[in-house]
Design a protein that fits this description.
This protein has about 100 residues and is mainly alpha-helical. The chain is built from 5 helices and 2 strands; from the N terminus they run αββαααα. It folds into 2 domains: about 55 residues, no CATH class; about 40 residues.
Length: about 100
Amino acid sequence: MIDWEYEAISNLAPNSSWLRNDEGLEWGDNNSEVKPSQEEIDAEIARLQTSYDAQAYSRKREAEFPSLQECVHAILDDQLDALQAKRALIKTKFPKG
C-alpha cells in the first residue's frame, strides 16, 4: 500500500522532518524548507496517483510476462518465436494507456 501523503511531502519538502498525529501533520523545529500547504500536498498526491494509475498496464504485464529464467531457457532452447508470441499476447491483453 502506497502512503501517498508521505510520498507527496517527501517530494515537496525532501529535507523536512514531520510526523502525522491525531491533530494532523506536526513539523520538526529544524526545518529550513518552506512547509507545503495542504492544497499543495493534495495537488501532489493527485499528481502521484494519476502517474501511478497511468502505469497500471505495465504492472499487469509484468505479473504475466515470462520470468527471466523462462526467457533464458526459451533463448537457449531456440524457442524465441514462441516467447515473443507469448509476450505479444500479453501486450495485446494489457495495452498502453
